[in-house]
Hints:
Layout: E1 26-31, H1 32-37, E2 55-57, E3 68-70, E4 79-82, E5 85-86, E6 105-113, E7 126-131, E8 139-148, E9 164-176, E10 178-179, E11 183-184, E12 189-208, H2 213-216, H3 248-256, E13 270-292, E14 295-311, E15 320-339, E16 342-358, H4 364-367, H5 384-387, E17 398-401, E18 416-421, E19 427-429, E20 438-442, E21 445-448, H6 453-470
Parallel strand pairs: 4-7, 17-20
Antiparallel strand pairs: 1-6, 2-3, 4-5, 6-7, 8-9, 9-12, 10-11, 12-13, 13-14, 14-15, 15-16, 16-18, 18-19, 20-21
Amino acid sequence: MEVGQIADQVTIQATAVAVDVATGTTSQLMSGRDMVQLPSRGRNVQPFALLMPGVVSTTPNDRRNNNSAVNGVRPTHNAWLIDGGYNIDTGGNWGSPLAPNIETVAEFRAIRGNYSAEFGTGGGSQFNVISKGGTNALHGSLYYFHRNDKLNARNFFSPVRDPFKGNDYGFSVGGPVYIPKVYNGKNRTFFYVLIGEIKERRAQRFFQILPDMPFRTGDFSSLARPIYDPQTGQPFPGNIIPSSRIDPNALGYVKMFPAPNFRDSAGRNWTALQGRTDDTSEKNFRIDHHFNDSNRLMWRYTPEYRLSIFKADPGFDFLTRTDRTPARNMAVNYNASLRPTLLNDFNFVRSHNRIMQFPPDVSPSTWGINIPQLFNDDENTYPLASLNLDKVPERVPTIGLVNYSGIAPSTRGAISRRSTAEGQPHVDQGRAHDQDGSFLFVRNKIRADQHQCVRRIQLRRASHRLERRHR
């Protein structure tokens, strides 16, 4: 019998652990490679939370207010993290200031319960995003995604399919830092960069019920119900209010209403398809440096800028609103192996965002409206410096008409600046308060809010006279 040959064979086999036997933590992991290969709207990390067990959301595609409820816990109890540091808008009910592009994600983990003491802040889930870094091999990607309305379904209540065009494009590149004849960072220093843009153009359909044209000039002859003169107690002749009896401020508001151009079975008589612009600029910069096998340093900076230009409700042409939302997230991580049994991990994260909403600037002189304010705005009630404004915006009081579309040109959104860093207090500046007042007309009753208390008393007296004469 011949002697056989001697051969050594080494088999390495790894299997996924279904249950974490070391701790009671329950979590789900998704790699960045899998996320890139799956179709997604907006190509950000937030919608992928729905692929994990126990997660539901009413706004899965919202880049900032992603209402993901995990195992029945309220969405505001979640914590969103990037590279171990919080990505939370602590002044905006726990939304995330920015949404990382999936091209920059190495892995996305949802820790759903029983997590260790290193996590906290929220009693719900911990959504942790680990960003990509460079390697010794130069690698990158170039991407372009296009969406349009050709395959969209028509809204049941819209006569036509709403136009939409969306373009998502950019590039990423990573590798060793190399400066010819100066520095070769192979095996030591690495970089990763992403620059992307999202451009969306859509149209928003508005339906409103507006006063008919004769009503705007005081002609109510088409109504079977008489209109009484509060001064004489007698009906106006022909149900027509003389132009001399109409307040000039009312005529100014009438100018804001466009002419009816539509009519349906619901009584709506005006519609418009108004354009909307939504642009998002995405960037990501990361540097990794390995001093040696025991000491490593990482720095990452992720800025994002969102711009939205659209028509505020009720959708009239002059009601153009602009929202600007810059957000930044920076992380510094230093990892050191001091001894075989002693590790040190230092992590510093700064999250900064601004929510700047600029409602339409309606000038009273443009519309011929002269309603004095009881409390005039100045530098104390309207902090111009923190809002990046050089003057107090001009406004007129809000008008509400029951059963008709109202006009709210004086509505102002919160314009704030938020900056948070772990271990530092939260700063929230620039809250503006509306002191312009509003009026609500309910048939022959007129009501004004507390900011116009003097006018409120006068108008209520007039309404009482109208009611008594009507009876």
